[in-house]
Write a structure and sequence with these properties.
- The N and C termini lie far apart (75 Å).
- 42% of the residues are buried.
- The radius of gyration is 26 Å and the shape is globular.
- The protein has helices at 3-34, 44-53, 61-65, 72-92, 94-104, 108-115, 120-129, 166-180, 193-205, 216-231, 271-279, 317-334, 353-358, 384-387, 409-423, 425-429, 434-451, 479-485, 506-525, 537-553, and strands spanning 136-140, 143-146, 151-154, 209-213, 235-239, 263-266, 283-288, 337-341, 364-368, 378-382, 390-391, 394-398, 456-461, 464-469, 488-489, 498-499.
- It has 558 residues and is an alpha/beta fold.
- Helix 17 runs parallel beside helix 19.
- Strands 4-10-9-8-7-5-6 form a 7-stranded mixed β-sheet, sandwiched between helices. Strands 1-2-3-15 form a 4-stranded mixed β-sheet. The chain has a 3-stranded antiparallel β-sheet with strand order 13-14-16.
- 47% of the residues lie in helices and 13% in strands.
- The protein contains 20 helices and 16 strands.
- Bound molecules: pyridoxal-5'-phosphate.
- The site of pyridoxal-5'-phosphate has 14 residues, from helix 10.
Length: 558
């Protein structure tokens, strides 16, 4: 063969190889696109870009009451209702509001949560007329009391920490402090109570080892780090909408100033995602937050995003169990570490957590919140081979995890109170017929709402509830203020998440239901749910988008 012919052949060969590589890359890219959820939450980079594009604008006092083009008589009813609510709010919560306003300047978190209680277009006017009242003086049973002495039924659940009722945690903190008083806050060495906690956690999780951290976020960081270390792979998979704390790698998209390059956000309960897990070689772990079973692929529901009634939630235990089983099988096949992030649901659904509740085992499990017995905590339980932080044959190849306050004696002691209570007949009794009790309560409330033709319905995953709205409206977020006026305390995400402690009696729940129905009735009477028959959730979305575009293009004119 001539030199020329050899060179041509080599060139063809190289070209062919490059083409094959490009095609393979394209195929991988296509498979990834298919496994993403169609929503913005499924496309982190695009969501960040769009979020940066959204212009600020808000409604003046007139537009505030008729942003859906309601007729004058409805606008007048809304205005009268709002004035009444505002007067009640400012009188009944006067001292709490005063103290909140005084402190707000210096509390960054309060400024943030306050700004995002309702959609931003309405936020400024709401804040001036229904100012935030963020302080409480005490808790008792299932109630909390503000600085004015108003008692509220607590539906905030303290971000999910409150599973057994506040009185239990008060006792746990008191008893725990007594238990470790002699040692005090000595760190580095362990109080003997740590050994018992480890024993109990191993029994509960069915896993071999335990590590203690200071928050759920840190526990998740450590679980992912261990998975990467042992698999020597780079990427983590999380599912669309799922919250796993605020560490950058598990929180791609809006809220994180940097892109998370080593994170795949996939569609939950999807064959395409399973297919992707079967084909890619760079996936170290899959993170599951079982709370998503209530609203797969949707972000945590918050009233700040409640511009129409498209919020949807429905828990199907059989379907989610089937999904987890299939995920487990694929992870086994591919050597991918399956992590259950039970920071929220652990100990809420069943004494053995989500593994117990769904009957599916994970390789690593993170716990937090309630497990601290009322104090801050994050825990990783895992298989021995995955928990190991060094290699016997490579002494310099380690997986570092530290933390000054890890295994803090006071936290370990309150955790011990929690874990021991879990074993008692009283503790176990709280879980008896749990789903039946909470499903029945949700059904009863929904029956009442339907009987009064109120456009509201609740959906629940056991004792975690979310409020959905059954007819298109721009004003659903107002319900949080009517609920407050009826003596129901919500967290800053409003009606997006109601969290009940398991010690609610039927009588206490009925009182909550009475107040809930009364609040919805008052809101209905005040005209907020008036709806033009031509209005749909889509038409509201389109109208809001148009407003945004107009404000972006012509900021001065609009
Ligand atoms: C599932 C899940 N993972 C992690 C976290 C983060 O926990 P923390 O707030 O203690 O850092 C949370 C908090 O809400 C959570 O719900």
């Amino acid at each position: 063969m001539t030199t020329w012919a050899t060179a041509t052949l080599a060139l063809y060969g190289a070209g062919g190889a490059a083409l094959a590589t490009s095609l393979a890359k394209l195929r991988r890219r296509f498979a990834l696109s298919q496994a993403k959820h169609a929503s913005l939450a499924g496309h982190a980079r695009l969501a960040r870009r769009l979020a940066a594009w959204v212009p600020f604008y808000d409604y003046d006092e007139t537009r505030f009451f008729c942003s859906d083009d309601a007729p004058a008589y409805i606008t007048a009813r809304r205005r009268a209702g709002f004035d009444r609510l505002s007067a009640l709010h400012n009188t009944r919560f006067a001292e709490t509001i005063r103290r909140t306003a005084e402190a707000a300047d210096g509390i960054s978190d309060l400024q943030f949560t306050d700004a995002y209680r309702v959609p931003f277009q309405y936020s400024r006017y709401v804040r001036t007329r229904l100012p935030s009242a963020a302080f409480l003086q005490s808790s008792d049973g299932v109630t909390v009391t503000d600085l004015d002495g108003n008692r509220f039924y607590d539906l905030s659940g303290s971000y999910g920490v409150n599973v057994f009722g506040y009185d239990f945690y008060k006792q746990a903190i008191e008893r725990g402090a007594t238990q470790v008083h002699a040692l005090g806050p000595v760190l580095g060495s362990y109080h003997p109570v740590v050994a018992e906690n480890v024993k109990l956690l191993k029994e509960i999780s069915g896993l071999d080892e335990v590590s203690f951290h200071m928050s759920g976020t840190e526990a998740v960081m450590q679980a992912v780090r261990l998975a990467r270390y042992h698999t020597r792979r780079s990427h983590l998979v999380r599912f669309c909408g799922a919250y796993h704390g605020w560490w950058g790698d598990v929180q791609p998209g809006v809220g994180n100033p940097l892109p998370a390059h080593e994170t795949y956000t996939l569609r939950e309960m999807s064959e395409d995602s399973l297919r992707l897990l079967r084909t890619r070689r760079d996936i170290a772990c899959v993170l599951v937050n079982p709370l998503q079973a209530l609203h797969p692929n949707e972000p945590a529901p918050s009233d700040a995003a409640l511009l129409n009634s498209a919020r949807h939630a429905h828990f199907d235990k059989a379907a989610y169990t089937d999904w987890l089983r299939r995920l487990r099988a694929v992870c086994n096949e591919r050597g991918i570490v399956l992590i259950f992030d039970e920071v929220f649901v652990g100990f809420r659904l069943a004494p053995g957590g989500a593994q117990d509740y769904f009957g599916v085992r994970a390789d690593l499990v993170t716990y937090g919140k309630t497990l601290g017995g009322g104090l801050p905590i994050g825990v990783v339980c895992g298989r021995g081979d995955l928990m190991k932080r060094f290699r016997d044959d490579r002494p310099a190849d380690i997986c570092l995890a530290r933390g000054t306050f890890n295994s803090h004696p006071y936290v370990m002691a309150t955790m011990n109170e929690f874990l021991r209570h879990l074993q008692t007949p009283q503790g176990q009794a709280l879980y008896r017929d749990l789903d039946r009790v909470w499903n029945e309560r949700a059904r009863r409330l929904n029956d009442r709402l339907r009987a009064e033709a109120l456009p509201v319905a609740v959906a629940n995953l056991s004792s975690v509830w979310t409020v959905c709205y059954t007819q298109p409206s721009r004003y659903n977020w107002m319900l949080q203020y009517y609920l407050r006026a009826e003596g129901l305390a919500l967290s800053w995400v409003g009606t997006g998440r109601l969290i009940f402690s398991l010690n609610y009696t039927d009588a206490e729940f009925d009182a909550v239901a009475d107040r809930f129905v009364a609040a919805a009735r008052a809101m209905q009477n005040d005209g907020w749910w008036w709806s033009n028959p031509a209005q749909t959730n889509k038409s509201i979305k389109r109208a809001v988008l148009k407003e945004m575009i107009a404000h972006r293009l012509f900021p001065a004119r609009t």
